[in-house]
Specification:
single chain; about 270 residues; mainly beta; 11-stranded mixed sheet; 4-stranded antiparallel sheet; 20 strands; about 50% strand; globular
């Protein structure tokens, strides 16, 4: 099973998480090989049950840590990714800080330009707080931007009670959710039997709609076998800083019956 906290770190920085492959997509932001190579990401993830938060950052001058091909179908994108060798050093944006959360957060680059993620044993927000994400600047110019902390959605359908959750790729997957109306709701379903380092279907819906459907044509892009799923709400902002595209994200897991929606899947 993957953890949302390491989606961006895994895909962008090729960190060894000790869990199954996944993304800031992160990652978490998934980035295809056709995108510009000057990229930056700052991702905040916070949950209340149990209280835990993670903050990650990464900047690259020659593309992300994984080369991905993307297939788009409606609200979904399927990513098939292979890892590549990272350079020994990477550009950075100086010290990164987050204000407006329940606890101050600071990340500093190492001598080779990479950032060590920060794990905090408390929730950073309840939802709707104004977060200010600032960087003192380095190869990537200084910036200071605000981002609204996402509220946690409650998903009423489908049921994720079974472990592993069973996904029938032959049938459309209908989702119903509530509890928030201004964030994006993202569901990621990943395969562990694809032959790729990462194989994920990521679908994004507006929480204002309260519902969304993943078509069987999109689900069939996933190979059958064991996998994982994850559902979260997020707010994001994309910045242009010199030649770099920098994506800021704040994410919280969605809930069902009070439990976070993250777990193993049996893909049929």
């Amino acid at each position: 099973m993957k953890t949302l906290s390491l989606i961006t770190a895994l895909i962008l920085a090729a960190c060894d998480t000790g869990s199954s492959p996944s993304a800031d997509l992160g990652a978490v932001d998934m980035v295809t090989t056709t995108n510009p190579e000057h990229l930056g990401f700052v991702t905040l993830s916070s949950d209340a049950t149990p209280p835990r938060a993670l903050v990650n950052a990464a900047f690259f001058s020659d593309g992300p840590a994984f080369d991905c091909t993307e297939t788009k179908l409606g609200a979904c994108s399927y990513f098939a990714c292979s890892s590549r060798t990272l350079p020994a050093t990477t550009p950075h944006a100086g010290q990164i800080s987050v204000a407006g959360a329940s606890a101050p957060v600071t990340l500093a680059p190492t001598t080779d330009g990479f950032y060590d993620g920060s794990t905090i044993q408390q929730s950073l927000w309840t939802g709707a707080e104004v977060l200010t994400i600032s960087a003192t600047g380095g190869e990537i110019p200084a910036f200071s931007e605000t981002l609204i902390a996402p509220r946690r959605a409650t998903v009423s359908a489908p049921s994720f009670a079974a472990s592993p959750w069973v996904l029938d790729r032959a049938q459309p997957l209908a989702l119903a959710f509530g509890g928030t109306d201004s964030e994006s709701l993202v569901i990621t379903i990943g395969s562990l039997d694809s032959g790729f380092d990462i194989a994920e279907l990521e679908c994004t819906f507006s929480t204002a709609a309260g519902q969304g459907t993943i078509g069987a044509d999109a689900l069939r892009l996933l190979p059958p076998g064991m996998g994982y799923y994850e559902v979260w709400t997020e707010n994001k902002k994309v910045l242009a800083k010199s030649t770099y595209t920098v994506t800021l994200r704040a994410q919280s897991h969605a809930l069902q019956s009070g439990a976070q929606l993250i777990g193993d899947a049996d893909i049929l």
